[in-house]
Amino acid sequence: MRGVLMKLYSRHVSKEIAESIWENRDSFLAGNRPLAQKLVVTVLFTDLKGFSTISERMEPAGYMNG
Fold first, then answer.
1. Beta-carbon neighbour count of residue 12 at 10 Å?
2. Would you tell me the crossing angle of helices 2-10 and 15-23 to the nearest 10 degrees?
């Protein structure tokens, strides 16, 4: 179970964040809802030229397989 979750988390967050989520998994959820946290983050939004046109022709599984 840990390996599967760590693989999933590490696709979207740093290894340190994934480890922290795993280590605090019991306290992370209260009433099946994530606990609120105040964090400083950096977010990058980008638009790749032609991506929308290409992605509209792809099946959803195509995104995962590259």
1. 8
2. 140
9 and 18 Cβ atoms separated by less than 8 Å: yes
Q: SS3 for 4-64, per residue? A: HHHHHHHCCCCHHHHHHHHHCHHHHEECCEECCCCCCCCCCCCCCCCHHHHHHCCCHHHHH
> Each residue's pLDDT tens digit in the chain (66 positions)?
778 877 877 788 888 888 887 887 777 666 666 667 787 888 888 878 888 888 888 887 755 555
